[in-house]
Automatic annotation (TrEMBL):
Pfam families: Peptidase_S15 (PF02129), PepX_C (PF08530). SUPFAM superfamilies: alpha/beta-Hydrolases, Galactose-binding domain-like. This is Xaa-Pro dipeptidyl-peptidase C-terminal domain-containing protein. Keywords: Hydrolase. InterPro entries: AB_hydrolase_fold, CocE/Ser_esterase, Galactose-bd-like_sf, Xaa-Pro-like_dom, Xaa-Pro_dipept_C, Xaa-Pro_dipeptidyl-ppase/CocE. It comes from Enterocloster lavalensis. GO terms for molecular function: dipeptidyl-peptidase activity. Residues 327-561 form the Xaa-Pro dipeptidyl-peptidase C-terminal domain. The lineage of its organism: Bacteria, Bacillati, Bacillota, Clostridia, Lachnospirales. SMART domains: PepX_C. It comes from the Bacteria.
């Protein structure tokens, strides 16, 4: 892979970043003429061919439409619309995935979605023209700056991408086939770009729907808990196809290891600017969870909705029930239909139980976190590896080998208990013979017999509600942190002396889960992420040696703080949740 350094504008300042050459787009004829070695840096992409054709009965495609950005760079877009003449609202998919399903990252599969559910016109993780065009919408599959045949270099999830999104929306709104109202739509990476584009406040962005979208790239992806994790991003980025260079986020994470620099600040959405109507989704068991819920909490729109579910993003996004729900949202703000969308609860949550079973589905709420939350502490006791409702008087210590060991603390609920919201883990810890330690935490459910009772996705057990911390990054950001949700500052590294005991507050991702009477909650702590066959290809660059020591009791009040949700109404044995 060829690396270069370039000076680009980040956060309004010139910044040196590391970029690499992307996979070169080639026609099939060009690939056929190459040797096997030459093909390694190339990937098939159909040649530029600006034309209009019938993509499917009733749907036309304006292919490779050139659109000029404010600085003169030209990007290329495929626009699908109903074949009948008219002016249509526009749904926009914006990401570095190829704008045609068999270009760019064509080998990616839509897990959990039966074949032919989504048409061949659909960009990965994006609105399907085969569905939306038949309902009176146009769909734009965009190759952003630097991707495919689009000109320039690609700096992802930054201000430049936001400005380009603005320019495209304002161009599209003036076209004869558009009714002047545009929306952004899509999942995962396609959702992540939406925060940045909406931040620029394009006048004709009528609404947007970021479903499952990381919003804090530093804290939620590259340095979750302060532990470097570059392999997944590196794997995805190396598949990008274009003529020029791409921002190598993995290499830049090493170059810029702290959050308080222009490189990372440029990738932060400008939350105060996001005022458009927005419909957000999140999955309790997916790495986009934190970003989606924080996005809901931080946007300034007075018209915002959140739906949180247990299923994986792809079957959730393409299910008939949820497509119809999303269509009601778009119809309200893109077609101006008075369809009662405003009566949709501001927050809907699925309360998980065990496996694929739900305790409650789409329960309506007014806010998140829930206002009626009652925060309770379960105090860790190393003497018997339990948790108790009162502090332990006697100081004790539990230990595990950081390379392959773990320690667990359990508590049995004496009555039915719902936990919805943010948990926090306060620990007193020490590295016995080293200057740092990486802590990987899972919060798990056990049945009444003490057996693990996980939520399952695609039939596989999810490791549990998670949190991570590199102890040298334990300093908190006082502005971002609350009592229930500690947030690390990531501005300094505070190494340990061997054996030095320090308190740490570990941010646990939000959840909604029901424990029946007699079931147990477990805190699992290790120096590695314990997966139990979980399928997502996530890896962290751990920095551990020797034993990790966990102190409890006395002056070391280690505890798990849980958000207990009381019933909405209770009258004797009558309970309404």
């Amino acid at each position: 892979m060829e690396f270069i350094s370039k000076i680009v504008e980040c956060n309004g300042n010139p910044t040196e970043i590391i970029m690499n050459k992307m996979m070169k787009p080639c026609s099939q004829e060009e690939l056929d003429a190459m040797s096997a070695q030459e093909r390694e840096g190339c990937k098939y992409m159909s040649p530029l061919n600006t034309r209009e054709y019938v993509a499917e009965e009733g749907i036309s495609c304006m292919q490779d439409v050139p659109v000029k950005m404010r600085d003169g760079i030209t990007i290329y877009v495929d626009i699908y619309k109903p074949e009948a003449a008219g002016r249509y609202p526009l749904l926009i998919s914006w990401s570095f995935y190829g704008k045609r399903p068999f270009d760019g990252q064509s080998e990616w599969q839509i897990m959990g979605v039966p074949p032919q559910t989504v048409s061949d016109m659909s960009k990965f993780e994006s609105p399907d023209p085969g569905y939306w065009c038949r309902r009176g919408y146009a769909v734009a599959n965009v190759d952003p700056r630097g991707i495919g045949h689009s000109e320039g270099d690609f700096v992802q999830f930054g201000t430049q991408e936001g400005r380009d999104g603005y320019d495209f929306i304002e161009w599209a709104a003036e076209q004869e086939w558009c009714n002047g109202r545009c929306a952004l739509s899509g999942n995962s990476c396609v959702a992540m770009t939406q925060w940045r584009i909406a931040s620029q406040q394009p006048p004709h962005l009528a609404c947007f729907a970021p479903w499952e979208g990381t919003s804090d790239l530093y804290r939620e992806s590259l340095y979750e808990g302060g532990i470097p994790a570059t392999s997944f991003v590196g794997m995805v980025n190396k598949e990008a196809v274009g003529l020029n260079y791409i921002d190598n986020t993995a290499e830049n994470a090493a170059k810029y290891p702290f959050a308080d620099c222009d490189y990372w600040k440029d990738k932060e959405p400008i939350w105060k600017n996001i005022t458009q109507p927005v419909y957000i989704t999140a999955c309790w068991n997916h790495f986009h969870l934190r970003g989606s819920i924080n996005g809901f909490r931080k946007v300034k729109s007075k018209k915002k909705w959140l739906r949180v579910h247990r299923n994986f993003e792809w079957p959730d996004a393409y299910s008939n029930e949820n497509l119809q729900d999303l269509e009601n949202f778009f119809a309200r703000y893109l077609k101006l239909e008075r369809n009662g969308w405003e009566l949709t609860p501001k927050v809907r949550i699925e309360v998980q139980d065990v496996g694929e079973h739900l305790f409650m589905k789409n329960r309506p709420e007014e806010n998140f976190p829930l206002k009626r939350t009652r925060y309770e502490k379960l105090y860790l006791d190393a003497s018997d590896l339990s948790m108790k409702t009162a502090p332990c008087a006697e100081e004790k210590m539990a230990a595990y080998e950081s390379e392959d060991g773990q320690v667990t603390f359990d508590y049995r609920f004496e009555e039915d208990t719902e936990i919805t919201g943010y948990m926090k883990l306060r620990l007193y810890v020490a590295a016995e013979s080293y200057d740092d330690m990486d802590l990987f935490v899972n919060i798990q459910k056990l049945d009444t017999q003490g057996n693990w009772a996980p939520v399952t996705i695609f039939g596989e057990p999810h490791p549990g509600v998670w949190g991570k911390l590199r102890v040298s990054r334990r300093k908190l950001d006082e502005k971002l942190s609350t009592d229930y949700n500690p947030v690390q500052a990531h501005t300094v590294s505070e190494k340990l002396e061997p054996g030095q005991i320090v308190p740490v507050d570990i941010e646990i991702n939000p959840t909604s889960w029901f424990w029946h009477k007699g079931q147990q909650i477990r805190v699992q702590i290790a120096g590695r992420y314990i997966r139990e066959d979980w399928f997502e290809p996530l890896m962290w660059d751990q920095d551990n040696k020797g034993r990790h020591l966990i102190y409890t009791g006395g002056q070391y009040e280690s505890y798990l703080q849980i958000p207990v949700i009381p019933p909405k109404y209770q009258d004797g044995d009558i309970i309404i949740r």
